[in-house]
Amino acid sequence: MRKITDLRSDYSYEKSRLTSYPWLMKDPGDKKTVHIIGLGDIGQNAAIALRLTAGEVISRIGIYDLNQNLAARLEIELSQILSPFGEPIYPEIKVLDPRNLFDCDVLLVCAAIGIPAVGEEAKGDVRMAQFEKNRPIITAYAAQALREGYKGLFGVVSDPVDLLCMEAAYFLHPEQVQGFGLGVMFARSAYYAAKRAPRDPRFSHFLQSGRVYGPHGRGLVAVNSISPDTYDSAATDQLTNLTVGANISVRALGYKPYIAPGVASVALTVPEVIAGKWNDSARFLNGVFFGARNKITPTGTRWEKDPLPDELFYRLRESYRRLDKAMNG
Predict the structure, then answer these.
(1) Please, what is the Cα angle at 215 between 280 and 308, to 5 degrees?
(2) Which residues of the chain fall short of a pLDDT of 70?
(3) How far apart are CA 10 and CA 46, in angstroms?
(4) How far is CA 155 from each of CA 14, 165, 180, 234, rounded to the nearest angstrom?
(5) pLDDT at 26
(6) How far apart are CA 157 and CA 177, in angstroms?
(7) E strand or H helix that includes residue 249
(8) In a domain, 300, yes or no
(9) What are the Cα distances from residue 198, in Å, to 51, 195, 204?
(10) From CA 15, how far away is CA 13, in angstroms rounded?
């Protein structure tokens, strides 16, 4: 039996030693400030859902977009999402000035220009096309964060999440960077597992012991169960294919799939990260940003330690090595 932390790379990262960050050291009862850069489909849905659900851990949601009218409109509309009975407590919505983008505990970069239009998915390697278009955005904000001495969490939401995390880590401490894309992959796997469980008991274990690992997209592994007694390679293959193809299923209906990612990967995951709870996201693991269940502690990233069936471990190692090659050459 192996664990996620047994994944190894020859890659040496000089900055991998943990240093302290103020947002991690705050009293757990202190609410955090979250800034969102980029108010497209994902950013808007993330902001709406955070406004509705994250008042216990977030005091302010700062919003920024190059389209200033869009940011102003969202400040008005999101601030008008309010219960008449005074509960729950909602985070304040504030339009950001470019000069105070990094005055926060958590920065979420949702800005993207590489999203393929409906019907354009099959034209070339979409993932790498997105990378080439979105890399300058991430590097520009990461470089600015470095210049301004930003010590908070730098969250990457733009695709491809894992590769762009590595770009940000060239400027920032790798423990400071986190990729938010795996949450929706778990939710998609759960959706398909629930549909198949009544006819096939191999899928019935997913909500108790199912997991998702690896990148947000091709290379993902959606596991029917990590328990040696119920893990099934064929069921894992089926679940992985269904989960990776979920985007195409929505696009086939003529729509871009952005609601679930904005809510599951961002709005439902970021509060868990802030609270120091287990979540599905991409964190730095021996030279690679790898998606798995983890939580952040004052002493660094803690990875889930459940033992993995050997067959599954070797499959995850291959996914890890592909990411290592893509990130580090």
Answers:
(1) 65
(2) 1, 8-29, 114-128
(3) 37
(4) 21, 8, 7, 34
(5) 64
(6) 11
(7) helix 246-251
(8) no
(9) 36, 7, 8
(10) 6
Domain membership of residue 61 as a residue range: 16-180
- Identify the DSSP state of 113: S
Burial of 67 (0-12, 13-18, 19+ CB in 10 A): exposed
Asked if 2 and 132 count as a contact pair (C-beta separation under 8 A), the reply is no
Q: Domain holding 81: CATH number?
A: 3.40.50.720
Q: Find all residues with CB under 8 Å of 207, minimum gap 6, and list them.
A: 190, 193, 194
109 in any annotated domain: yes
Which pair of tokens denotes residue 319?
């996914």
Q: How far apart are CA 186 and CA 280, in angstroms?
A: 8
**Separation between Cα atoms, residue 329 and residue 81, nearest integer Å:** 47
Joined together, the tokens standing for residue 245 give: 């193809």
Q: Let me know: does 229 contact 91? Beta carbons within 8 Å.
A: no
pLDDT score for 327: 86
Task: Tell me the torsion sign for CA atoms 256, 257, 262, 266.
Answer: negative
> Rounded distance, CA 163 to CA 13, Å?
16
HSE at residue 298, side-chain half, CA atoms within 13 A, is 5
Integer distance in angstroms from the first to the last C-alpha of the chain?
Answer: 29
**How many distinct structural domains can be found in the chain?**
1
Kindly state the tokens that stand for 267: 């709005």
Decide if 55 contacts 78 (C-beta within 8 A). Answer: no
- Pairing of β 288-297 and β 211-213: unpaired
The residue with tokens 């033992």 is 307
Q: In angstroms, what CA-CA distances link 228 with 221, 310, 314? A: 16, 9, 14
- pLDDT value for 326: 87
C-alpha 23/C-alpha 173 separation (Å) is 14
Tokens of 238: 């089926």
**Nearest-CA neighbor of 64 among 33, 105, 94?**
94
Distance separating alpha carbons of residues 40 and 103, to the nearest angstrom? 22
Tell me if 251 is assigned to some domain: no
- 265, part of any domain: no
0.85 cut: is pTM over it?
Answer: yes
Query: Which amino acid, one-letter code, is at 19?
Result: T
